[in-house]
Amino acid sequence: MGDKLQTDTTDQLFYNNELLQLTVLGGIKLEGLDRMRVTIKIQEQQSSRPPVRHNLDLYNDTQLEKFIRKVAQKLEIGTNIIAASLSELTEELEKYRLRCIKEKEENLKPKVRRLTKVEQEEAVTFLKSKDLLQQTNELIGASGLIGEELNRLLMYLIFTTRKLENPLHIISLGSSGTGKTYLQEKVSQCIPPEEVVNITTLSDNAFYYFGKTDLKSIAS
Q: For residue 27, what pLDDT is reported?
């Protein structure tokens, strides 16, 4: 029948069939899947009669039945036709809302950067360098971390063990103001952001409540 929900603009959703045009004014809320609260406008496709506007919950049978009778009276159309159109609209709105929720969840996921083929080849060549550790340390320095040559390289190498089944751990000890946090932050900037978890405050027993893989890198 060519029925279709038009979602080009999120503030106005249009649904057309052979007899009616239904417009959802203001769009729909993604929260609360137990309700479908909308402001709807219904008008005939080929008619000079003014449209009917109303605010209701499409999941509320009492509200829906009253609205169907109201539209039938004003537009002089059978209640079965209006009920079927609203049922079709509700089905399409459900699909649209679930699709929007899924897209929103996907957008919230960390974006994992994939290396190009050329970048992969360059990385492999670099990893085969005889002076790999020295070059790595120099690149860490070039990133903006000046000094702490031994500590910065050691910390970076420990951070890379996140890829192993049993990663290493590091504890920074020193007097207040000696740059422990700064060192950690600068080295962590050399790690892909989607693989960094920053926790600034923990209680004495917090780690007892973490699962075995709760802090495991999300990247494979």
A: 92
